[in-house]
Specification:
Blueprint: H1 2-10, H2 14-42, H3 48-59, H4 62-72, H5 76-101, H6 103-122, H7 134-155, H8 166-173, H9 182-209, H10 212-219, E1 272-277, E2 284-287, H11 288-292, E3 297-304, E4 315-324, H12 325-331, E5 345-350, E6 355-359, H13 360-363, E7 370-375, E8 378-379, E9 389-391, E10 405-411, E11 434-439, E12 449-458, E13 464-471, E14 476-478, E15 480-481, E16 491-499, E17 502-512, E18 534-540
Parallel strand pairs: 1-10
Antiparallel strand pairs: 1-2, 3-4, 4-7, 5-6, 5-10, 7-8, 7-9, 11-12, 12-16, 13-14, 13-17, 15-16, 17-18
Helix pairs in contact: 2-5, 2-7, 2-9, 3-5, 3-6, 5-6, 6-7, 7-9
């Protein structure tokens, strides 16, 4: 009999292992719930899932990031967080099974993962205090204690009716269920699940409410009339063809590509921008009201993400209101390198620690480089950089479009590599001349006859001069260009195609105002943007 009991301790039956896995899942759930609640008292970005997710993004090779953006688009962050939760769930199940045999070891495993979350939290670029480790640490302690208690219930003797059924009954119940407090385990597990759900919900609610001041500050903003308004849109700048991207991209449809797992919500009344660094003779700090009461300008500017594949969706056009960045730099005593300035790189830092480097020469060469306060007639949306972001015509976003900006440092390219440069991307990246077919869509089946082929082309700060379309291997045909708004915006184009039955390949290319023809050489997005001709295959019925 002693040998049988020893075997039951060493090799618990599978039902008890399943219950152990359940204990691990409940402990993991409780750990994340408690961490979420503590993060509400510290800051949302200190949550272990967010901290580990941010660290994972930073450590991910550029090629993998590019793949994720290409396949998941703006849902890449959601996919990452779900992936982290899935991995944590598997680990929690495994630790629960381990704890059935080695109770302390399983609990220690939960605590260890808490230390990983804590290390990730305090290593984030925007972390300013060791308190960022508290959510992970407190959550891990709660999870470890819960796992220890629940697994203990699997081995605790029943408090009532013990031995009533005799040895035969105990044997029939099996080694996995004999001699443990079922009722106590069920009550403890149910209570833990319910308490964790409540704690997690309260934590999420409190975290969401932390941005209320920012929401209130945004709602109170009234954008003044700019002293220099965007010129009226030419009547023929917009083609009324179904399927073509609208000339002005609505805010809700504007692409978003960044590394922020939690969109920063910054109170505009507390926001400050500091300008300092090499060659800054008069360092300065500006409030939001300081910028709002300056002479604002309004411009239509098309932005493009460097992760945009040929024919991809990460390009959009908006009407921006803001302050000329060159004017602020001049006030601070900055001069461009072409006039003897000491700094050739402007490093913008966002509130979440992102660093983006831009050529000082480009910022100060007369183009409408802005610190934007408004987008399409309203204050910037939170997802697009409220309260202030950079907008620089002609440069890909990763070297110009810093959102949630709070610091500008003048330095040199030789002395500092910003976030993306450290990960293999180019230091300088002017936007390449590109074009896209919006309609017909790939694999469409239009009817024979006249089919409108249409889309957009862009070469910011150079302008589009010509767009051509080729059907199969035929000659290039010049498309009709919509009127140009400015050289900093895309242009719509169209071609009436007499379509004949069968499968056809439609290809487009653009020529910019410098005479440069869009190259047919396909390149990847890394290190300075994709290139090549966009083609679609259709079958005409």
């Amino acid at each position: 009999m002693r040998d049988e009991k020893k075997d039951q301790r060493v090799r618990p039956g599978w039902p008890r292992l399943v219950l152990g896995a359940l204990c691990g899942a409940l402990a993991g759930f409780a750990s994340l719930a408690v961490a979420e609640l503590v993060a509400a008292a510290v800051r949302p970005q200190s949550s272990p899932v967010i901290a580990v997710g941010g660290a994972s993004i930073d450590a991910t090779p550029a090629q993998v990031k590019d793949w994720a953006i290409r396949h998941f688009g703006t849902n890449d962050k959601l996919v990452l967080q779900l992936g982290i939760l899935a991995v944590l769930a598997v680990l929690a199940l495994a630790l629960g099974v381990l704890a059935v045999r080695f109770r302390l070891v399983g609990a220690a495993g939960v605590a260890l993962f808490g230390l990983v979350g804590a290390a990730a939290a305090i290593s984030r670029p925007d972390s300013t205090s060791f308190t960022d480790a508290l959510p992970s640490v407190v959550g891990a302690v709660a999870g470890a204690l819960l796992l220890y208690v629940l697994v203990g219930r699997l081995t605790a003797p029943a408090r009532s009716r013990a031995g009533e059924s005799g040895a035969v009954s105990g044997e029939a119940a099996g080694p996995a269920s004999a001699g443990w407090d079922r009722r106590g385990f069920v009550l403890a597990a149910a209570s833990a699940a319910a308490a964790s759900a409540v704690v997690g919900a309260v934590g999420r609610s409190l975290n969401a409410s932390r941005g209320k001041d920012a929401v209130v500050s945004r709602n109170k903003i009234v954008l003044p009339n700019p002293v220099s308004q965007a010129r009226p849109l030419p009547k023929r700048a917009v083609l009324r063809i179904d399927g073509v991207s609208p000339f002005i991209t609505p805010n809700k449809d504007f692409y978003r590509v960044d590394t922020a797992l939690v969109v920063p919500k910054v109170d505009a009344t507390a926001w400050r921008l500091r300008i300092h660094g090499k060659g800054v003779r008069r360092p300065a700090t500006y409030s939001f009201d300081d910028l709002l009461h300056r002479q604002l300008i309004e411009r239509d500017i098309t932005l493009t993400c460097v992760s945009n594949e040929v024919g991809g969706p990460y390009v959009g056009n908006a009407r921006w209101i803001g302050v000329r960045l060159a004017e602020l730099l001049t006030e601070c005593g900055v001069t461009p390198p072409s006039r003897g300035g000491r700094a050739d790189q402007l490093v913008a830092r966002s509130v979440d620690g992102m660093t983006i480097g831009s050529p000082v020469e480009d910022i100060m060469d007369g183009r409408d480089a802005l610190l934007a306060l408004g987008m399409n007639g309203e204050p910037l949306p939170f997802a697009h950089g409220f309260p202030v972001r950079m907008v620089v015509p002609g440069l890909y976003g990763f070297v110009s479009a810093c959102k949630w900006i709070e610091d500008i440092e003048l330095t040199t390219f030789d002395s500092y590599d910003p976030y993306w440069v450290k990960r293999g991307w180019a230091r300088k990246a002017p936007i390449k001349t590109e074009s896209r077919i919006d309609t017909p869509k790939p694999f469409a089946r239009p009817k024979a006859g006249t089919v409108m082929v249409a889309g957009v082309a862009w070469a910011q700060h150079r302008g589009i001069d010509k767009v051509e379309v080729r059907v199969d291997d035929g000659p290039w045909q010049q498309a009709h260009l919509a009127a140009e708004d400015s050289r900093d915006t895309w242009r719509q184009w169209s071609l009436a195609w007499p379509a004949t039955p069968g499968s056809h390949t439609l290809t487009v290319r653009a020529t910019d105002r410098t005479g440069t023809v869009q190259t047919d050489q396909r390149t990847r997005t890394i290190p300075d943007g994709a290139s090549g001709w966009h083609s679609v295959v259709v079958t005409v019925d």
